Amino acid sequence: MSIVTDYFLNLEKAELHLHLEGSVDPETLVELVADSTIEEMRARYQYTDFLGFLQAYKWVTGLLRTPQDYALITRRLLEKLAAQNVRYAELNLSAGVVLWRSQSLPAIYEAVRIAAAESPVEVNWIFDAVRQFGPEAAMQVAEFAAEFVRDGVAGFGIGGDEARVPARDFAHVFAFAKKAGLHIAPHAGEVSNAQNVWDVLEQGAERIGHGIRAIEDPALLRHLRDNDIPLEISITSNIATGAIASLDAHPVRKLYDAGVPIILNSDDPAMFHTTLTDEYRLAASHFGFSNAELEGLARNSFRYRFAGLSGCESTAL
Ligand code: ADE
Ligand code: ZN
Q1: pLDDT (tens digit, 9 = 90+) per residue, 170-192?
Q2: Is residue 312 part of a domain?
Q3: How far is the CA of 18 from the centre of ligand 1 (A)?
Q4: Is any atom of ligand 1 closer than 6 Å to the C-beta of 268?
Q5: Is 250 domain-assigned?
Q6: Which site in 13, 94, 105, 257 is 20 to 30 Å from 297, CA atoms measured?
Q7: Residue 20 reports pLDDT greater than 60
Q8: Residue 156 β-bridge partners
Q9: Is residue 133 part of a domain?
């Protein structure tokens, strides 16, 4: 291992945008599915565009059947995070998918919470609804999230296909979540446009999942900077899903230089063949972020957390 690798690995980091279900590697799927092969599983992680990625993600969720399956993938993920010196994580659970499959969200949440409590990585959760499932389904997610707000659920998010249902249709859902004490972290401006970022801001978003299309709107860049609203950036994800055509075209450096608060994240590390450490390394190697700048981004990953780190405030911040 090179010295450079060690530097990024050793940096104390937090993960604020990581989907539990997108962290399941093909090897774990083989364990979960009788008579399956690693080749079959790997083949399912191939896709050519964003909607293809969402289909692959949905397929993986279909293999997670019991609370024990969810506990297993949580343990596996947290082992990997601990090995990267990730001290704190806010993990997205696709609660909207769990409910859509008529699985027991309380039983699954209890299983992942217990699994997470065994890890040295401190964890809080963000319950994600699915945009294209619509406001009624999202409200059910928000209601469950509200039920667990004092039990480790820090936020409410919306993932999926942002082009399908406008954020204003979820206005009452966001309002309910906020009133219940949940923080709001929806995906927006990942594949669509800057207006979608404005739309979730209007609904009270405190962090933006991706938000890279903000680069198309100087007024939005100023707004994010002046109001200290961070973008959860996942470079490898954006290339893998085709949200951005090439690494050279990725706006992370321009967003940073415009003064927009940035956090680096892995999003769906198994599905994008990346890790949080890789994302820091990529920011250095391809986008010229200095070590001092990357240390600043690592500090951001703690600074913009919604909760947690009760015991280690002084080392983390
Ligand atoms: N769910 C998991 N990963 C996602 C992404 N990158 N965009 C939207 N929804 C997601
Ligand atoms: Zn995401």
Answers
A1: 999 999 999 999 999 999 999 99
A2: no
A3: 9
A4: yes
A5: yes
A6: 94
A7: yes
A8: 127, 184
A9: yes
